[in-house]
Amino acid sequence: MSIFISGIGVSKGIAIGNAFVLAREQFDATQITLPDSEINAEIQRFKEALAQANKQLHDIKQKIAKNTANDILVFIDTHLLMLEDPAFDEGTIANIKEYSCNAEWALQMQGDRLVQVFDEMEDPYLRTRKDDVLHVVKRIQSCLAGTAQDHDGHLYKGKIIVADDLTPADTIMMKHQKVAGFITEYGGPLSHTAILARNLGIPAIVGLHHARQLIHRDEVLVVDGLSGFVINSPDKKSLKYYRAVKRDESAKRDLLSDLSGKPAITLDNKQITLHGNIDRPSDIRIIKKYDDTGVGLYRTEMLFIQLNQWPDQKTHFNTYKRAVKALNGKPLTIRTMDLGADKEIQETIDHGPMAHNPAMGLRAIRRCLKEPQDFMPQLLAILRASAFGPVRLMIPMLTNIEELDQVLKLIEEAKQLLTKKNIAFDKKMPVGAMIEVPAAALAADAFAKKLDFLSIGTNDLIQYTLAIDRIDDEVNYLFNPLNPAVLKLIHMTIEAGKKANIPVSMCGEMASDTQYTRLLLGMGLEYFSVQANTLLEIKHIIINSTLKNLQAETKSILQIYDSHEIKSRVQQLVNLL
Ligand code: PEP
Ligand code: MG
User: Fold this and answer.
1) Of 300, 334, 434, best ligand 1 pocket probe by most atoms within 8 Å of the beta carbon
2) Is residue 143 flagged as an active site residue?
3) On the chain, which terminus has fewer CB atoms closer than 10 Å, C or N?
4) Catalytic one of 79, 192, 275, 316
């Protein structure tokens, strides 16, 4: 019998495939005393599990190496180094002999011991390595339990992953294994994983509570990543219908692909800038798959998350230079680090002070200004990368002009340092700010006077204006880009840019949502930075719109306070030529 369940659709598209339910693995590592006659066989069993774990990691590395940035491969190398370290091997075997015990318990004891060693280290970075120890122990335990093959290799191919939650690293790994879709129990549409799934073009649903109880392994699922529903064990008729929808989707994609490389010009001749958002240089390949265009938002946090620490200048520089070169003359907008809230490194999760409200805490530019010595390498590297192509620097989460002045001062210091050392950079590199806090939107005039561009971050602007945690699915129903207060702040920002004669873009998710494109055009937005897989759809709307007509309609929409009425008027814009 077919069952309908629903969560929050966060990455559109239809996926059809068998469920792959990821259990939260709990291993039984209770102590079993073995007779002397079985000790050698137990040691042999442990060695085989170790070899199997080693082979799995080598296989994964080999499979993803061709298409994966080095900073992701580092994860796997660290685990391989640990697996090959005598501390694991010899320590566990010594335990088996000393306590005449089973390999699981001997390994668990050794793992606990190593975790304690890392825990007591002075260096906060080395302390975070204990998570790697835990992952490696888990991998060997799963080999000992004979369940390891469930998590590796090609087994994800064509499957729909059902998990409690996925880290960005899981999401990337699974993409390489060609998964069909994702369903998670937790998370909201603006969690980093949801954004990543959209970027990778994989249908995904989050916030589907109890998904792992409702869905069983290998059941056939239809996932609609737009509306957020799942059909579990669809009947023949539904399956036929959704296969046809999937075919239509791909036919539509082919049609849109004709727009690739063409300018985004409205029917009344206004050229609109249309760029893509990326998380890492390798994402530029995804943008190029759709269109040959620039980057309006490069979220650099991934670099921090993958390394699990603040990168040094060389790592920053090599990464940005790679991105500039891949763009081949098209602009690259690098946003300085925005760690905190839903994007965090293990170091602070484990050892930092617990913030009660991390979204309002020491996030993004606040954190950079608190640790200018850690921020400086990023500023220097962005400037240095600007010698290789058009680079723009963008500052996140500004709330007042004093913060902006401090950042501008640091940029000036970085420029002087490079000049003194005779290192090339673009002296006119544009510097802009994200307008993503109501305070900044209300003071956009003042920011615009000091900057070369503004970019509206609707994900946070909506969160802070409406007091809704963007990753809390319980209040997701309140997250409304069409709230009149949000629209007014967006409009004020666009107007401030026009007054100061500087470009204003939008790089938050609202810009990628086709139901808002015409409203934003009518509000005067001339620069969109969107998820790669929506580039051509948005272009299609732009080239079929007449700004003049939209402007008149939008003006009257901005006078309305009833959200339902706003929604219905925005929907009607679709019919306007
Ligand atoms: C935003 O807030 O809209 C934005 C683009 O930044 P992020 O989603 O990375 O916070
Ligand atoms: Mg933001």
Assistant:
1) 434
2) no
3) N
4) 192
